[in-house]
Amino acid sequence: MSKKNDGVMAIIAKNIFTYFNAIFLGISILLIIAGSYRNLTFLPIVIANTLIGIYQQLKAKRILDKLSLISEAKYEILRNGERKKLEMNQLLRDDIIYLASGQQIPADAIVTEGKISVNEALLTGESDEIEKIHGNHLMSGSFVVSGNCRARLTGVGEDSYISKLQSKAKEVKEKPSEMVGDINLIVKVAGIAIIPIGLVLFFEGFFLKNQPFNQVIVSLVGALIGMIPEGLYLLVTVALALSAARLAHHQVLLHDMRSTETLARVDVLCVDKTGTITNNQMNVTEIFNPQNATADEIKNSKTLLESYIATSLDTNITSQALKKYYPDGKPFSTADVVPFSSKQKYSEISTQEGHYLLGAPEFVLGNNQNVGDQEQIDLRAAKGERVLAFAQKMEDKIKPLLFISLANGLRPNAKETFRYFTDQEVKVMVISGDNPLTVSEIAKTVEIPNAKNYVDASTLKSSADLQEAIKKYTIFGRVKPDQKREIVQLIKREGQRVAMTGDGVNDILAMKEADCSIAIGSGSDAAKQSAQVVLLDSDFSHMKEIISEGRRDINNLTRSATLFLYKNIFSMLLAIFAIIGVISYPLQPSQISLISMFNIGIPAFALAFEANYKKQHGRFIKVTLLRSLPAALTSFVSIASLVIFGKVFSIAENDVSVASTFLLSLAGFMLLFEICKPLNNYRRLVFYGSIIGLILCAYFFHYLFAINSVSYQCLMLATVFAVAQESLMRNLTLFFSRFKRD
Q1: pLDDT band at 67 (very low <50, low <70, confident <90, very high)
Q2: Is 272 a catalytic residue?
Q3: CA atoms of 380 and 495, how far apart (whole Å)
Q4: Among candidates 546, 542, 503, 525, which has minimal Cα distance to 2?
Q5: CATH 1.20.1110.10 domain position(s) in the chain
Q6: 335 contacts 351 by C-beta, under 8 angstroms
Q7: Tell me: the pLDDT tens digits for 543-559?
Q8: Cis peptide bond upstream of 678, omega within 30
Q9: Superfamily of domain 253-277+419-538
Q10: Active-site hit among 182, 256, 272, 314
Q11: Strand 335-341 with 346-351, pairing
Q12: What is the pLDDT of residues 112-158, one digit of tens each?
């Protein structure tokens, strides 16, 4: 079930009432009590961050809401004698609803007329199709596999079965993506660590060293502000929201904004033939006869086929193509209809005239198929056409009456899209319910690698067979819905990330199991509501844009997070050093704010929105740690040494503080230079602009940022330690680069 976008007030509240904003409020109160107003320079940055987050998320929400309205599933109902189409939240108890194949059942109901097959796997875990007739109960959250019916709604909204079930663990739970999960971990560790460190620093300064309250508070706040990753989570939220908004302009709806990251990291893409490689328009290309059929038998068979099609309850694209080809058939006067099932691969109708079947030849005819007919079927399958058998069941014998050949058109740009996946080291597997030879031929047309390696999944009887087949084959035909899900599970078991595309109800189980699910806009409502990503215009080539957006987010947020993590690790190490050494924290809050603005905040946001589509390898937290540690350790060692040096030689605390600010900014700019490589015009602007901005602020607003005076001794100190700092960072960078490869 798709999540609704957060409301306006929820977005505002989520950005204002955060854990770290509460910390900043507490810090601000302490500084005001201490009378240290100059050190409140972080407040404008915090307020600006909050306002930017609210603005960008509201902007993205407006775009996504418009798109969601287009994709919202609507249901045909009968109310007070009037038929109308309504959204799910407008349905009322006792409404009569019309349900057909491909729809998700929106509320609990009782069948009043007709017959359908439903799948309740999302509720019960059982994937068997269950037939529902007059008087049977329908559970919300299940979906119609075949047939159509009328039903009276008995439980809507909170009274429905699906609503009551949500408190239990039967629905697939959302998992945070790797990057978001790692960032949550970083924020959590920082959020927990600042409390005990802050308390110990206060106790040590106020009670053990008997320092004045205002001096203790300034030192304490300087340590804590450096440890707070105040802009990191905001940066992620804004970047993902803007990606979702950009994709919305391409008619791509994200039910989960984090799915772009998952797609950008995907190893295997499982696609269905229909709706993905081919479009949803199917046409009858030929009606051909079984061997040895007489002219009278052929004429009679065609009449029977027309009546069968007119009587059928099926609404899938195959049925639509048949009804388009035979629009004027006369229905059977009395008939017992069993709709098409993806499990048994055929439909059947029993009448006074006889018992008839229509579906996949190997399932309809079984052992009654003769060699000549099979050659005709294979000939058309080799051209990428789909063949159906129309047959009559007579006691234990099944007699073929006619064969129908149908074909889909290929989707525009399909070949270029699959070539893109090959270039991006993404393996494509085609998992279809159609004849494997047909699927293979179509896959060859769009140049899917190894398309000649195909297998009939109906011959794979065990999980071991399926697991072995996954290693050998690219094309899987005659796949049943539960097999699709198992294929995805087995691929994931090998440690690979899987994305699954689909357009029909038979794809939903596999889509739910995949790391990321993509639905085709022209497909069933049930598939679209179950998917994380919906291609509203059914253009599969948009997958390139989705993956590009995901890579933009991963690459740029990795670079930006490195800057935040550098400051957090350094501040935590220096705070622990201050506690162990029983010394005052050398940096003031306003100095940390200056560094945060030009070393981290501005460049991090600027770099987060650059076009950057390189495939990222390695885990997010490992990559960011290995990139940030050289600069963090360099700054810590140099500033800690400077503090000890100052103590030994009785250098003024102000000189040590200002020199520490210079050293911290120098290491920060060395790190910024590293993550900007290779330099282009945009990155040069970000890098040199940040340096110029810091110098200008330090010169013109020196009092505001506690850089009141710079003595000759301070300059000499900063220069000597800067030379040592450059050498140390270069060697640490070389050392940690050994661990960057997985």
Answers
A1: low
A2: yes
A3: 39
A4: 525
A5: 8-63+175-245+547-739
A6: yes
A7: 988 988 888 888 888 88
A8: yes
A9: HAD superfamily/HAD-like (3.40.50.1000)
A10: 272
A11: antiparallel
A12: 998 888 887 666 655 567 889 999 999 888 888 888 899 999 988 77
